[in-house]
Amino acid sequence: MPSVFQMSSRFTESPNARSKSITAADLETYGVLNRHSTNHPTFQVGVSEDKGSRRTMEDAHSFVVDFDSIRGQGFFAVFDGHAGKHAAEWCGSHFHEYLLAAIRASPTMPIPDLLNQTFHAVDASISRMCEESDGKIHSGCTAVTAFLRLEDASGQQSFVSPAVESPPIESPVSSSLLGEDESAAASSAVSSNESIGPESPSEDSKSKKKKKSKKKSLSSSRIRKALRSLASGSSAKVTSPTSISPTGSRKSTASGGTITIPPDDHRRVLYSANAGDARGVLCRGGKAVRLTYDHKGSDKQEAKRITDAGGFVMSGRVNGVLAVTRSLGDSSMKEFVVGAPYTTETELCEEDEFLILACDGLWDIINDQAAVELVRDIDDAQVASEKLLKHALSEHTTDNVTVLVVRFKHLSSPPAEPEPAIQSA
């Protein structure tokens, strides 16, 4: 069975990271990665990138409109690579697949927990790819992701029928990840809620190890099954713990699949997760609301975690090498530079205008509020992303720059304060 590294042979000889080409459709995207829906009723996406003054481009991005075949859902991400393009490019092609597999494996699990699992599974796959490359690949990347999810009042998706089958997403996960000897990614995802901080497990927790181990095994099996479904190109059923809402509806698409049209009274909840210093900022009534956390060596909390684990921070760098304290990949420093994300959960309201996801090539140049004010009057998401990019370049950023803007439309829910979740560990 081919290894993860053999699967990565699709990488070109170019040192520049390559995101999947952006295409456009009138409305239906069929889950295709990086395909715009030009007449989408609820949001618009714009992406701009440039290598800046660097010799190579190590950033990648991804988005999926109507994610998981539900009208109005979306997945958006920016990956900022270092020490090579491979980790960022791989994430740009596959991260969304891992999230979808996690959702289908555990449809009732809280989304922050699923994002946590996904980060750990992706981190394990990239680390394994690096280890199997015989030193040819040793890169890592920071990541900022956002999942716009539609929910009912109880936080579930009762309007989704248990019988609905979603068409497979494009570029399915390679079956090489799914063998008995290749299941580390799925297995590690299940342990994502374990502490990486200085605290040690209590004595009482030891008595729960057997039950915990059994739970991990079952969850790992579900994730592998979902990944296998994606890899085979078959449809996967979306399950729901509650009955179908009479106000929800399903629409058949030209591809033979179906898309769920949510009822008018649905809630729109924005879940974000990041590792490293790639950042997400929401514009709410003209005010910048940061949804992410910068994991840097200069952060006292992160520095303490690293020293408690036996490492050190010198000149703001982990072991004198890496400026970020959390990332995907970086297998040689995984004991200290972990892949556990910071997550937030925010119910969107009428005051929420747009979301900016970008790497530090932008945020090293402009602060959150200034970025929001720079593009607030621009209705076109693509034009807004281009303006932010040009600003960073004009101010002589020394890094690659990738900016993704999501402009929201037709919000009708009452105002609600953002609710940052407890930092995942």
What fold name goes in the CATH topology slot? Phosphatase 2c, domain 1
Distance between the termini: 33 Å
How many H/I helices? Answer: 10
The name of the CATH superfamily reads PPM-type phosphatase domain
What is the SS-derived class?
alpha+beta
The first-level CATH class is given as Alpha Beta
How many DSSP-defined strands? 20
Sum up the overall morphology in one term. Answer: globular
Give a quick account of the main beta sheet: strands, pairing sense, barrel closure: 7 strands, antiparallel
Low-confidence stretches: 1-9, 171-218, 231-246
Provide the β-strand percentage band: 15-25%
Biased composition (Low complexity): 160-195
GO molecular function, one term: metal ion binding
Region (Disordered): 159-265
Biased composition (Polar residues): 233-258
What does this protein structure show overall?
With 425 residues, the chain is of the alpha+beta class. It has one domain (4-196, 211-411): Phosphatase 2c, domain 1 (4-Layer Sandwich). The protein contains 10 helices and 20 strands. It has helices at 4-7, 86-105, 111-131, 184-190, 203-206, 209-232, 300-308, 360-363, 368-375, 381-394; strands spanning 23-25, 35-37, 43-50, 59-65, 74-82, 140-151, 165-166, 236-237, 249-252, 258-261, 267-275, 279-284, 287-290, 313-314, 317-318, 328-329, 342-347, 352-358, 401-408, 419-420. The strands form 6 sheets. Strands 4, 5, 6, 11, 16, 17 and 20 form a 7-stranded antiparallel beta sheet that branches. It has a 5-stranded antiparallel beta sheet with strand order 3-19-18-12-13. A hairpin with a 2-residue loop joins β12 (279-284) and β13 (287-290).
